[in-house]
Design a protein that fits this description.
The complex is a heterodimer of chains A (about 700) and B (about 350).
Chain A lengths: L1 E3 H7 L4 E2 L7 E2 H10 L3 E8 L17 E7 L10 H12 L20 E4 L7 E9 L6 H9 L7 H13 L4 E4 L7 E6 L5 E3 L5 E3 L5 E4 L4 E4 L3 E2 L11 E8 L2 H11 L4 H8 L5 H15 L3 E10 L7 E6 H8 L5 H10 L3 E4 L7 E6 L9 H12 L20 H15 L3 E2 L5 E2 L1 H7 L19 E2 L4 H12 L6 E11 L3 E11 L1 E3 L8 E2 L2 H14 L3 E6 L5 E13 L2 E11 L1 H6 L8 E7 L6 H4 L12 E10 L4 H12 L3 E10 L8 E10 L8 H19 L2 E2 L1
Parallel strand pairs in A: 2-3, 6-9, 20-23
Antiparallel strand pairs in A: 1-5, 4-5, 7-15, 7-16, 8-15, 9-12, 10-11, 12-13, 13-14, 17-19, 18-19, 21-22, 23-24, 24-30, 25-26, 27-28, 28-29, 29-30, 31-33, 31-34, 32-33
Helix pairs in contact in A: 1-3, 4-5, 5-8, 6-7, 9-11, 10-11, 12-15, 18-19
Chain B lengths: L6 H13 L4 H12 L5 H8 L8 H28 L23 H15 L3 E2 L5 E2 L1 H4 L19 E6 L11 E4 L5 H9 L4 E10 L11 E11 L4 H15 L6 E8 L2 E10 L16 E10 L1 H7 L7 E8 H9 L6 H4 L2 H4 L5
Classes of the chains: A alpha+beta (about 700), B alpha+beta (about 350).
The structure holds zinc ion (ZN).
The site of zinc ion has 8 residues of chain B, from loops.
């Protein structure tokens, strides 16, 4: 809202000027004060004094002029006007408001126009009045004031309606009477199939829940939103019907949204107009038209207001102000402040501390409770004068939620493994979502995405993370390790916490002491094993398949904690086709994993009981067997564990060899078995017996040959 | 130096000499001095026995042999110690770069969020997480924004094409239909299930249908705070936020409260801090005002209390909302909010582990 200081000065005495003793407050200071009262002045634009002065040429004492560009919050439609801001300024400086001149109505005459409200739920009040006009350009000062407010002058009639809207805040509309089907206004819902050509030239189809202003035959305006082109005021207009009404805010808002129009009028109506303003707005417009010689009012204004509501009265208890603010504000400040703002505070008899019954003016659509009044008092008293205190802690904080320790530990473990944390968008493209999670029914789509790039909620963190990897890859970064902790979304499971990892480039960087080594799948499975170990569990991997992963290089991840095994997710080499589609160039393999975070908990650490450290030495045995190379190592392990007895504490695969000396289709697998007993030193005989059992079991189960 | 001839004197002298041994050569010298076949002290001792009375000879001989064994053993132990402590010959170029042990970084938005959590944690606030996919009731209606409320325009919303069951897996009578525009829904969820006093913060990502630019991202991270109890005042809100902002930015940070409007607080305020770029003297970032808008806050609207069944006569409270991205931009002087979501390692790796 752009407001000319000289216009403001017409409605309220401003102690504002050059900063001289007579006018001590500068415009910049006024702007700061308004800002501190809740009306942010975004800019103060110097404006030439004179052109916008109705008296003509500026005198020597003309104070400097300026345009204040004010940000008006949605709760204060009353301040979308010079009058509203004047009222705030009057409250700030303790000066009185001056209402602009109004056309004196003669109630004795017959209604010059018939006004019928058919749908009073959407239009509780409608005022119509006639003015015989001579359409032409506006006087310079009036046009200049509109221009200062960024409103384009059109002709004197339209300009006056805009002028009154800016001055008093209430939108007006003017119809060309001769282009209506007679002197009759009907306020009704649109008929099924009814259309209207609006002032912007668009032909619009109306719907039955929309309110229109019609003549005897058809809709001539979309109520509160925009007038119709057919009854537009033109150079040949002789008589206008001036309209000022109160329209239901929700109805205006819905209609505006439905037909895709937002106008200065609808902006005000949907925030809430002043139901008492229409009569005054009409009288002001008629006065102005007469003053500038643009027209002569004909007959009285017709005011249809079937059921005026009772005024809103709110009790304000003085002690409650201090209770809410933490500062006692003098009662002698409270009542005068509210009065200047247009409220009517009446002290309840015999109340100490005082209690007021405050009548809320109709233009203050934002005030209906005691707290609203307290805000008015606090606002004008100044937030800067509130003390700073500290709320007493009356009970201890509850323990932190388990997810905090979990997420913290995940971050700690993975950053320790060289992975940096990424945060990617919750919405992604549909194609990569489907590539990774092919169940289309399970994908959660957005109704109003910003673009196709964010069409669906991510069913997996992987697509976004792969995109981040590619982003880095395109910026000369070869070795990349990223992870993300976040929500994924599916219709079936809802919103669940997940973890994804991506890895590419060198696992060991090239160094003067030796060559680099490319990342392979076992770098990533190793990280996952470490993650699981960090949570007190053991990771196991089983061959698996997934559409977006390379066959034969894909595993499902299981977490074993105590005796519980849960499926945690999938790890594998990303299908190069998928990576290429996302924009990855080069031939480096990308390894990815996605894991469910829910099975990972730190609960067990809360009651962790340490087992005694081993007191007896361990004995190791190395074992090399030749087995079918398609046999997963995990099966060999299972067999060894089952056969070795309780003294076996660990199995390490220490070598894997194929080549001369090994049959085609076979592989030599060397393992180091470690044995230990908790209560004694094992003998060689015991360990040898266990090893022999292992060898026999391997031969039986896998036809393994000892080498 | 002549070798002593008395057994005890030899032992004492040997111990002193052994203690002074630093090198293999020293050790050899000591060995020669005591066990040398011709000149050694022990050999001399043996020879001197010839002049001893015959009756004493066996005892003397035994003692001399014991001494010899003792010296021999001590020399062997000393040799082992010397060998184990031997320093390698030749050096390396210590200025060559060491082998890298890769380590990753937490995301800067995580770092900021954890800082905020820890400052409020020390003030007794519990950290909560809520669902990102919300229902209209918790995101708007219970926060005093009924359908068709113009304030809904302030937070342009992403909607799902069809509802998702039970937000965040929690049972809910309200189908989840939108991406939360703020974390304030968590206020409602918490108050629905807990009685005052309430002292919580709820960090998390939120979504608004804004076209991305330098300062806007359709997804960003916010933290919401809520404190409810008996006798809680706006002065408490001011005190707590000033304490937080000074802990987070700088003890000298000045804080300004200005009236504003949010449907779920009354009175409402916008909070500004003295510009971190120009120290309040005015610069392009603060548009020459010296102040930077940092968060929104206010006293919880009684309609919100009524929605969750709290008695607004008995309880008062306050809430605030802080953009983590915004404070990250300001604190670390990142010029473009979108950089946080590119996950460019050249940015991420500037932040501490
Ligand atoms: Zn600055």
């Amino acid at each position: 809202m752009r407001i000319l200081v000289s216009w403001l000065r017409e409605l309220v005495t401003l102690p504002v000027g050059s900063g001289s003793p007579d006018s001590p407050v500068t415009i910049a200071a006024l702007a700061d004060t308004l800002t501190m009262r809740g009306f942010e002045v975004g800019a103060v634009e110097p404006w030439p004094a004179g052109p916008a002065n109705p008296a003509g040429q500026p005198g020597n004492s003309e104070p400097p002029d300026a345009v204040l560009d004010l940000e008006i919050t949605t709760n204060r439609p009353d301040c979308l006007s010079v009058l509203g801001i004047a009222r705030e300024v009057g409250t700030i400086y303790g000066t009185d408001l001056r209402m602009p001149a109004l056309w004196p109505d003669d109630d004795d005459q017959r209604d010059p126009i018939a006004v019928t409200i058919e749908d009073a739920d959407l239009c509780p009040r409608y005022v119509g009045a006639l003015v015989d006009v001579e359409v032409g350009p506006s006087p310079r000062w009036l046009a200049a004031r509109l221009e200062a407010a960024d409103v384009r002058p059109i002709n004197n009639v339209v300009d006056v309606t805009n002028y009154v809207m800016l001055e008093l805040g209430h939108p007006l509309h003017a119809f060309d009477l001769d282009r209506l089907a007679g002197p009759e206004i009907r306020v009704r819902r649109a008929r099924a199939g009814e259309t209207i050509r609006t002032l912007d030239g668009a032909q619009r189809r109306l719907e039955p829940e929309m309110l229109v202003i019609a003549d005897a035959e058809r809709a001539q305006a979309v109520a509160g939103v925009m007038g119709g082109a057919d009854s537009e005021v033109s150079g040949t207009t002789r008589t206008i019907v001036l309209e000022a009404a109160y329209f239901n805010p929700i109805s205006v808002r819905r209609t505006g949204k439905r037909i895709g129009l937002s106008t200065d009028a609808s902006y005000r109506f949907e925030r809430g107009a002043d139901v008492e303003a229409p009569v005054r707005a009409i009288a002001r417009a008629r006065q102005l038209l007469a003053t500038i010689g643009a027209g002569q009012p004909r007959g009285p204004a017709v005011d249809r207001y079937p059921t005026p509501p009772a005024p809103i009265v709110v009790r304000l208890r003085h002690h409650r102000i201090g209770h809410l603010l933490g500062l006692t504000i003098d009662a002698a400040f409270v009542a005068p402040t509210l009065t200047r703002l247009g409220f009517d505070p009446q002290l309840e008899p015999a109340t100490d501390p005082p209690v007021w019954r405050v009548t809320v003016p109709t233009f203050r659509v934002d005030v209906s409770r005691e707290e609203d009044l307290i805000e008015e008092v606090a606002r004008h008293h100044g937030y800067d004068r509130l003390p700073t205190t500290f709320p007493a802690l009356t009970q201890p904080a509850p323990p932190p939620g388990p997810w905090r320790a979990r997420d913290h530990l995940v971050r700690q473990l993975l950053t320790g493994c060289g992975f940096s944390e990424a945060i990617t968008y919750g919405f992604i493209e549909r194609a990569p979502a489907l590539a990774i999670h092919p169940d289309a029914q399970d994908i959660v789509a957005l109704r109003n995405p910003l673009s196709e790039k964010g069409a669906v909620l991510r069913p997996s963190l992987l697509p976004g993370l792969v995109d981040s990897l590619i982003h880095n890859r395109r910026r000369e970064r070869q070795d990349i390790r990223l992870f993300e902790v976040g929500s994924q979304f599916r219709h079936g499971d809802g919103e669940t916490p997940a973890l994804a990892l991506v890895m590419t480039g060198d696992a060991v960087a090239r160094h003067w002491s030796g060559p680099e080594r490319k990342t392979d799948l076992f770098d990533l499975t190793g990280v996952i094993a470490r993650l699981c170990e960090g949570f007190g569990g053991v990771a196991t991997f089983e061959p698996d398949t997934a559409g977006h992963l390379v066959p034969g290089r894909t595993a499902s991840v299981r977490l074993r904690v105590a005796d519980q095994t849960t499926v945690l997710g999938t790890v594998g080499q990303l299908d190069p086709g998928f990576a290429h589609t996302r924009g990855l160039t080069g031939s480096d393999a990308v390894y990815v994993a996605e894991l469910d975070l829910r099975p990972l908990t730190t609960d067990r650490f809360d009651h962790l009981q340490a087992t005694p450290v081993p007191r007896y030495p361990s004995i190791t045995r190395d074992l090399s067997v030749e087995i079918d190379d398609a046999l997963p190592a995990v099966r060999v392990r299972d067999t060894i564990r089952a056969a070795a007895g309780p003294a076996l504490v660990s199995i390490n695969e220490i070598d894997r060899y194929q080549g001369p000396g090994i049959a085609a289709g076979a592989v030599s697998l060397s393992m180091r078995l470690t044995f230990r007993a908790p209560d004694r030193t094992l003998t060689d005989t015991e360990v040898q017996a266990a090893t022999d059992d292992v060898v026999r079991a391997l031969a039986r189960a896998h036809r393994a040959k000892l080498r | 130096m002549t070798a002593p001839t008395d057994i005890d004197a030899i032992r004492a002298a040997f111990q002193a000499d052994l203690g002074a041994v630093a090198t293999e050569a020293d050790l050899q010298t000591v060995r020669d001095r005591y066990l040398g076949r011709k000149q050694g002290a022990v050999a001399a001792l043996m020879k001197s026995m010839a002049s001893a009375p015959t009756a004493d000879r066996p005892a003397l001989g035994k003692a001399a042999n014991e001494l010899k064994r003792e010296i021999d053993q001590a020399l062997a132990t000393r040799r082992q110690t010397l060998e184990a402590s031997a320093r390698p010959a030749g050096g390396v170029d210590v200025t060559l770069p060491g082998r890298e042990t890769p380590f990753g970084r937490r995301h800067p938005l995580t770092l900021i969020r954890e800082q905020v959590e820890s400052i409020f944690g020390a003030m007794g606030f519990e950290t909560l997480q809520g669902p990102q996919v919300e229902d209209d009731y918790h995101n708007f209606e219970a926060l005093n924004m009924p359908p068709d409320h113009p304030a809904r325009d302030m937070q342009d919303t992403f909607y799902l094409d069809r509802p998702m069951p039970g937000a965040g897996g929690t049972p809910s009578t309200h189908p989840a239909t939108l991406l939360r525009t703020h974390t304030s829904g968590m206020q409602i969820r918490y108050m629905e299930t807990h009685q005052p006093p309430v002292r919580i913060i709820a960090p998390g990502v939120v979504y608004r249908r804004d076209t991305p630019d330098l300062t806007h991202s359709p997804m960003f991270v916010q933290v919401e705070g809520l404190l409810v109890g008996e006798g809680i005042t706006m002065a408490d809100l001011k005190g707590t936020l000033v304490a937080f902002l000074q802990a987070f930015f700088d003890a000298d940070t000045r804080v300004m409260f200005r009236p504003s409007f949010f449907p779920y607080t009354e009175p409402s305020a916008e909070v500004f801090i003295s510009c971190v770029f120009c120290d309040g003297t005015g610069c392009p970032v603060c548009k020459k005002t010296g102040w930077l808008e940092i968060l929104g806050c206010g006293m919880v609207h009684p309609a919100v209390f009524e929605a969750v069944g709290y008695d607004p006569e008995r309880y008062t409270g306050w809430a605030f909302g802080l953009g983590i991205d915004r404070v990250a931009l300001l604190k670390h002087r990142v010029e473009d909010i979108r950089l946080f979501y590119d996950n460019d390692l050249r940015l991420l790796e500037q932040f501490p582990h």
